[in-house]
Design brief:
single chain; GMP Synthetase, Chain A, domain 3; 2 domains; 3-stranded mixed beta sheet; 4 helices; about 35% strand; KH_dom-like_a/b; OsmC/Ohrsf; OsmC/Ohr family protein; OsmC/Ohr_fam
Length: about 150
Amino acid sequence: MECTVDWGGPSGMLFVARTGSGHVAAMDGAPEGGGNNLAPRPMEMLLAGTGGCAAYDVVLILKRGRHAVTGCSVALKADRADTDPKVFTRIHFTFTVTGANLPQAAVERAVALSHDKYCSASAMLGKTAEMSWSVEIVDTAAAASAA
């Protein structure tokens, strides 16, 4: 895996990352840190990447289990250390998984497998952060029958 990150120049703290897969992502700092607030902060990108990694795993595990998953979102709430390096100290993942007749046990198993075995990002962050998660299931079969 490869990535390059280039500074946008002396007028701020904008950085542009170019990934090995050919994608571009911008990062910026807060105005009080010399940035112009034009893009997410690098630590926000790290948190978002962790959420993406975990959600990807959950969907893949449920699909492989032949469950009728139609949506998945994850909200992450993180706390950071007060002193440098300001690592994440606590991260809570709230998964909202949508589908028809999704068993609670299957969704919770998928989330647990992501955290315990598959998600590289949360495995790394788990070295400094207390990790927790919760699950909400939105049953589209129940919603359709109620209509």
